[in-house]
Amino acid sequence: MQVPAPFEYARATTVDEAVALMGRFGDTARLIAGGHSLLPMMKLRLANFDYLIDINDLHGELGFIAVEPGVVRIGALTRHRELLDSAELAGVFPIFRDAERVIADPVVRNRGTLGGSLCQADPSEDLSAVCTTLDASCVIRGPLGTRTVSMAEFHRGPYETAVADGEILTEVRFPVRERGGSAYAKVERRAGDWAVVSAGSAVWLDDGGRIADARVGLAAVGPNTTGIPEISATLRGEEPSEQVFTRAGEIAARSCEPATDQRGSAEYKRHLAAELTVRTLRTAVARAARGEA
Amino acid sequence: MTDTRQRSFEDNDQKPMGFGRMLRKEDPRFVRGRGRYTDDVQLPGMLHLAILRSPFAHARIVSVDTSAAAALPEVKAVITGADLAGLGLAWMPTLSGDVQAVLATDKVRFQGQEVAFVVATDRYVARDALELIDVEYDVLDPVIDVRQALAEGAPLIRDDLDGKTDNHCFDWETGDAGATAAVFAKADVVVSQDLVYPRVHPAPMETCGSVADFDPVEGRLKLWSTTQAPHAHRTLYAMVAGIPEHKIQVISPDLGGGFGNKVPIYPGYVCSIVGSIVTGKPVKWMEDRSENLISTGFARDYIMRGEIAATRDGKILAIRTNVLADHGAFNGTAAPVKYPAGFFGVFTGSYDIEAAYCSMTAVYTNKAPGGVAYACSFRITEAVYLVERIVDCLAYELDMDPAALRLKNFIQPDQFPYMSKTGWEYDSGDYEPTMRLAMELAGYDELRKEQAEKRTRGELMGIGISFFTEAVGAGPRKHMDILGLGMADGCELRVHPTGKAVVRLSVQTQGQGHETTFAQIIAEEIGIAPADIDVVHGDTDNTPFGLGTYGSRSTPVSGAAAALVARKVRDKARLIASSMLEVSVADLEWEKGSFHVKGDPGTAVTIQDIAMRAHGAGDLPEGLEGGLEAQICYNPSNLTYPHGAYICVVDVDPGTAVVKVRRFIAVDDCGTRINPMIIEGQVHGGLTDGVGMALMEMISFDEDGNCLGASLMDYLIPTALEVPDWETGFTVTPSPHHPIGAKGVGESATVGSPPAIVNAVVDALKPYGVRHADMPLTPSRVWDAMRGTAQPPI
């Protein structure tokens, strides 16, 4: 049994109460949702906090998937399993189901949350790549009210986010556009492992079947999951083709900053960035063309 | 023969009176949460122990200040290496005759080494108190790259050993260097290949731990501990700690896996004993997952060069190898004394060759000690990997089918018993039918056709073969001992008046199903149903002496003891039956469970009738004592030599280099099959181990000696998603010297599967000109191999 350092525990029953507790304890406190990243770090004593504020009772308030005209809103406490199981969400953004199928294992998916995933800000985290791909924005509530930041602003570096002491990520919003398709692919050493590299793609076609817009998000190849604007610029207006996808893959490979570690060499990861970009673009375009979203 | 894939619980309703498929007797308690493990032991007043470990791989200890930890009211003792030195307990012998620090006094020699321990009223305080111990270290350069261990100017690790000036541990050789060189000189073809078998860890689900309860009045020590060898441990505690052996009781309760990890005596066990003596209370120590991974017995870590000599048409003539063995900071291998490299000498495999030679150098490095662990059959895992990999390299160079090459070189049935060129007497074997069955089950020719078609489309499919011969069941006492203890096993069988029985074993199950298998052996011999036989094991006060369970030795050694003790009981039962039926012994016929008069099956007495008479008031034959029981100590005359043919089919994604094990066909020959279901379970587990080692497992270190596999997030073990639906089959070649013809099988699949998987991946990469790639074949390493940029995993 790994034993964490001593800490005190409080259980919030409303978002306002959680915000108040966080305001009171400042950086000595940490929110705990699913706990599948935080608790192992505490047990290994890599993370030590004086207070844990449990927000699992807020699931009624923050656990939801709302597919609305032009936007999908997902509550920060929505569990991985709920994201995986939602046919409505998969209908709009199949990338979620692709990603959730390869995130950790059922035990983790039963507890882990969207908000926890984003706030952990692990550079290899899958849902962060999904949110980057889909150009999500994050709703953060604090003592002074609510503010919204884009994914590009949300992650400030490995394990750092725009959420300040005393604030809570409450909701993530995804713009919905016509004739879109999306997909996710991940290479891992073993089921449930963090990504060696993973990629998400989203494309939107115009009436003529050309690419109106496209986005690619990569995980595990830099300090944070990255969107690559150059790929979007390159793909816009193009007829979808293997040549175009390959060009996008080449941009992905040279735009990322992977490091050699136990999961693989930097060179291999660059190769994967290209390969997975091509594969997910291919799938996303096919889905968009079939009207599968 | 193939095993039927359909199984039902009816198997168990028809409980076999002896050998056959039946569900395990011990499973109800495990599946219903009633197993009792070391960590379940709760004693009144019990205290908890936590160990402070070194953050550095190599450092001199300047000072240890325990005052802040000792000042906590819940802390009952803080003990350092200096304290133990005062008691003469700072160092202990390892199972291979080296010494190992219980708590470091002078230096720490690997990251995770034990430096001090705290005993406190609960586990949390004990752990928190570790943070209050202030150790000042003078950090030294570590030796991490094993290839640099003997380099000029390498830091000296074992300055505790008198006169030691380098990191040399031992040299060992076997075979005939001159004869082998002569054969190599005349051979048409010589193939040489460097291979690494990386350091891996057994990672049993239950970590190691103990509960020590020392009674200061009686001078008695009761120790629950996670050990695969309770008797051997007791003897060693008596020799080291100075407590008389008859006053030590070692209890190994249910074990949550061992795989060799629980053979050595770890410093933590000794610390718990010291903690109990010092505090006068029972003391529990249970290591956490990281402690288990960074400090307990690893396995493998052999850097090998394999060379094979053959004729142009594929007759293998000789095999030669040179090995650099990384033994870590202390030589903690648990091999028999005369075998410092374990049974690596069987590296000639299943082939009839003219000459063989091995030279080995073992060195110390700043890594955790160990070396025997992980289902290795005393290093046969490394030996089989070596030979099966270089045979495939030879097939590559000769452009010959690897199955055909193996079939051409097998030892033939009429050559058994076969004396290998390194002095191992293979007891029995019939290899070709096993190989042919595996090929038939796989549809080998069809697979090769499919592969050829796929290659034209750029798809990467590989077919890998491994054929292994194991040498298990250590061992004959004239050759084999551990620290002077002969590797025999005792067994006691007592039949109660009502005809139920209890059998007491010296070996200890870690999940292998001994309570079922041994009951079936007794049932087969004396006809008492397995359900009516209680199997007692793991408690030194209640079982006869023996060396424990590892190296697949339980069935070959203890299983033989069980069969023979049952026959002793049956011999006595025959005498009683003759007096009950009033006929001479020669007129009796045994039919499982009863004696009847020859030619008159109706005139019979059952074993139950005999048991009651043996304990009853009636007359017994002249000179015969009452009771129906016997004991034995079995000394095997040889090892047993199970074999098997494994075929693995993989697909490699050319774009990502991800390996998918599509099929795995395992045909095992372990002689007489006692419980086929248990054998299959062991094979399934071992094959899964093999997938882990071949594709993902490795304990690696950074250049400072930090262990990079300190959690199961970093040290990957396979899940159900990485393994295929195993396809098993069997042949039966009974051991001629084992009373029931059985051979060990517990490690066969772990030994045999890694080369099959690696051979399959290498075969898949043939279009890229790949002849070899080292484990673990992670996607990144496979990609390197495809591009010709692979580096050894050192």
From TrEMBL, chain A:
One of its GO terms (molecular function) is oxidoreductase activity. The keyword Oxidoreductase applies. It comes from Winogradskya consettensis. Gene3D superfamilies: 3.30.465.10, CO dehydrogenase flavoprotein, C-terminal domain, Uridine Diphospho-n-acetylenolpyruvylglucosamine Reductase, domain 2. This is Carbon monoxide dehydrogenase medium subunit. Residues 2-179 form the FAD-binding PCMH-type domain. PANTHER family: XANTHINE DEHYDROGENASE SUBUNIT C-RELATED. SUPFAM superfamilies: CO dehydrogenase flavoprotein C-terminal domain-like, FAD-binding/transporter-associated domain-like. Pfam families: CO_deh_flav_C (PF03450), FAD_binding_5 (PF00941). The keyword Flavoprotein applies. Keywords: FAD, Flavoprotein, Oxidoreductase.
UniProtKB/TrEMBL annotation, chain B:
The keyword Oxidoreductase applies. InterPro entries: Ald_Oxase/Xan_DH_a/b (IPR000674), Ald_Oxase/Xan_DH_a/b_sf (IPR036856), Ald_Oxase/xanthine_DH-like (IPR016208), AldOxase/xan_DH_MoCoBD1 (IPR008274), AldOxase/xan_DH_MoCoBD2 (IPR046867), AldOxase/xan_DH_Mopterin-bd_sf (IPR037165), CO_Mo_DH_lsu (IPR012780). The keyword Oxidoreductase applies. GO terms for molecular function: anaerobic carbon-monoxide dehydrogenase activity; copper ion binding; iron ion binding; molybdenum ion binding. Its cofactor is Mo-molybdopterin cytosine dinucleotide. Residues 32-141 form the Aldehyde oxidase/xanthine dehydrogenase a/b hammerhead domain. PANTHER family: ALDEHYDE OXIDASE 1-RELATED, XANTHINE DEHYDROGENASE. This is Carbon-monoxide dehydrogenase large subunit. It comes from Winogradskya consettensis.
